[in-house]
Amino acid sequence: MLASASECLDILRCPKTGAPLERIGDKLVASSIDSDEPLEYPIIDGLPILIDFRHSILSERDVLASAAESVIERPRYRGASAMVKRLLSPQKPTTRRNVEMLVQELEQLSGPITVLIVGGGSIGQGMAPLYDHPRLKLFSFDIYRSPLIQFVADAHQMPLPSNHFDAVVIQAVLEHVVEPQRVVEEIWRVLKPGGLVYAETPFMQQVHEGAYDFTRFTESGHRYLFRDFDAVASGASGGPGLQFMWSADYLARSLFRSVKAGKVAKLMFFWTQYLDAIIPPDFSVDGASGVFFIGRKSSRRLEPIELVGHYKGAQRSHSRSHSDGG
Predict the structure, then answer these.
(1) What is the 3-state secondary structure of the chain?
(2) Most exposed among 174, 209, 213, 303, judged by the fewest C-beta atoms under 10 Å?
(3) pTM of the full structure
């Protein structure tokens, strides 16, 4: 369940200095180390806005003027449109299994279990069990306001204490940040020793959310992004069949200069995503729509040379021959 606003307020920190914050009226205030001037952050309609705009692609003027409304249109699906949405985006079995694994790991802990959701403006696909679990206390933020978050923040500078959370979940977010490595370093910082991270990130997926889409990762590249974590599990979260459906959508919208044409094509090829159930995992890795990683915070860093041995795709023999022959 989501933590209360007061529970969240107790742990918030200044994104610039990491100092604790005190509520004074409609602001959160921290003492600056560098000057006598206090650092102030507004609270808008009960929602703290904790962003260092000097180091963010977000505009302070726009965020404050819109009360942190999303700059991306996020449609709400109802009736027939909701049915079509479920048809085109069914729950991925891989995500369901991974979330079950994460929950089982967390249930072994005693006492309260704290989970941070990075990019929690909406409940991610397959993430409902985290919100429904009676022992999990969820803290959630995003760069736009939502009933599902307790504060607005930039993931490059998480306004949170170090060594605090038992787990961090970041689904379909790392492609939308300018510096993914910095965000992962922040995840490592806020996790307790031995804490868990669950990440899903696109690989062969077209641009979405326009100007706010920056990066893609192979499975091996995603593993190296989380090089300060011991791997629990990793692989493809969506396979070549799902990727083919996305490609049909974007091919049609490109040819006909029409998003609607893309949706029609996506409907025509929605069935290809179900082929992923019969595609071997190693072939899925090479043609994946997206990849996942479950890891445990570690004091040991994965070395670049170890990535060759980590590779999980279907071209392993080909890779070995290149390694042997130079």
Answers:
(1) CECCHHHHHCCCECCCCCCECEEECCEEEECCCCCCCCEEEEEECCEEEECCHHHCCCCHHHHHHCCCCCCCCCCCCCHHHHHHHHHHCCCCHHHHHHHHHHHHHHHCCCCCEEEEEECCCCCCCCCHHHHHCCCEEEEEEECCCCCCCCEEECCCCCCCCCCCEEEEEEECCHHHCCCHHHHHHHHHHHEEEEEEEEEEEECCCCCCCHHHCCCCCCHHHHHHHCCCEEEEEEEEEECHHHHHHHHHHHHHHHHHCCHHHHHHHHHHCHHHHHHHHHCCHHHHHHCCCEEEEEEEECCCCCCCCHHHHHCCCCCHHHHHHHHHHC
(2) 303
(3) 0.93
